[in-house]
Amino acid sequence: MAQQELSAFLLERAPELAQRTAEHLMLASVSTLVATIAGVVIAIICFEYQKLRNPITAAVGILQTVPSLAMLVFLMTVIGKIGVLPALAALTLYALLPIVRNTIIGLESIPAPTIEAAQGIGMTKAQQIYMVRVPMAMPAIVAGIRTAAVVGVGIATLSAFIGAGGLGEFINRGLALSNTRLILLGAIPAAILAVAADLILAIAEWGIRPVRATDKPLSTRQRKLRRTLAASLPAVVCAASLSFYVYEHPITAQPNVIRIGTKHFTESLILGELISQAIEAQTKLKVEKRFDLGGSLVCHGALLRGDVDIYPEYTGTSFATILNMDSIKDPKQALDTVSQEYKKRFSLTWLPTFGFNNAWAIIVNDKAAKVHGWSKISDLKPSAGKLRMGLTSEFAERSDGYPGLKTVYGLNFAHITDLDTNIAYRALAEDQLDATAGNSTDGRIDAYHLKILDDDKKFFPAYQAAPIIRDETLKDHPELEDVFKSLGGTINNATMRQLNYKVDAEHRSPADVAKEFLTAKHLDSAAK
What we know:
By secondary structure, this protein is α/β, with parallel strands linked by helices. It contains 23 helices and ten strands.
């Protein structure tokens, strides 16, 4: 299927683009507002109490050095929720530095004669700060706010990794699906928002600065009205975006709404769509999609906290990442074990498996495999010292990933690079890598003409895919059991690879591919 025409693509995405833009604007504007209030207060404290200045400004500076994703995940863990709260907290912390520094500089730059005059008319120290220093420092303060706002718009794109929404949703999906259009659909509006934020604050700065002799002559009433409107523009934008967000995302949980989570890769997105569409087709329940949440730990944490009700997982991943247990090779025993452990430890239920086994695989370029005679993983050992290996960060650290593979097969690659699978597959096809680790049902294996090497020492355990659901959700909505029984066993390895191929190679949306599959299997309708 050919890619959509650009006009059709934009028309189809327009409603979601408007929603994501409003979410992004809310994240950036609210965090900048909170950071402005906090930053000015902190700067005044530093100005008044010089002994506190160095440690406080150092602490604020250190916050700026923490990688954005690490900060988001850390705050998500501390706050105990995914979504908007940890995102706002992270963005606020990142916005503090320019505001605090500029405010301190502004407070210190007031001419001494001005302060002497204030003292001469009997102003207290507090009055000097709030009535003289802060107003006169306003250009420096606003400059800091403008810097913080622009940076905040950029960092807000990462908030999508923890379910906070915004334009980062498109960028995440584009990266997961190797879809340049989706990446640009998030990146270009984000860039426009950054420019718009700077312009809005520039207008507000004009509204609050003193009238100059060179300004265009206007009546006092006109001047006051224009300046009031200009000065209040950021507050209006912030209030409007926040109101829209609250309207679209009610604070209280909505009845009969099931929240579906997924990880950040094609197959998980397709499974999430299958789950979502099957629930809405076969029951009276509505679905809220909280896709692209990152890795297993993020999704599992969201499930435990009730931020999502269901997400698709793999048995092998659960052993290594969640349960911290040795993997079990036998598929049935593995499924029985994870089901029992999840029920006992977390009050979570493993529903019927989809029917395929998406085990890890070592993948090479098909042409290179023919040249070097590679058919199984053991064949790499003689030349491993010269080979370039690309690994995802998760595979590089997990016990069922590279550490275990290295021990079992005795592999010591010359160069190992952390890469997203989307980049690794392309690099492999372009001969920039010699091998990578991927999933056996990945559609890009066929799209890029790659080859899976046989796991001749049977190192990789079974990775049966199945939805996991909160026991509380299943108790409240027992009709979901029938939905997942209908989905159970409907997808084998070949089918899953075809579904992935349609998204990765043909650039179709996971939603369309899932809908087509459900229709073909007659799972897209039921008596309601």
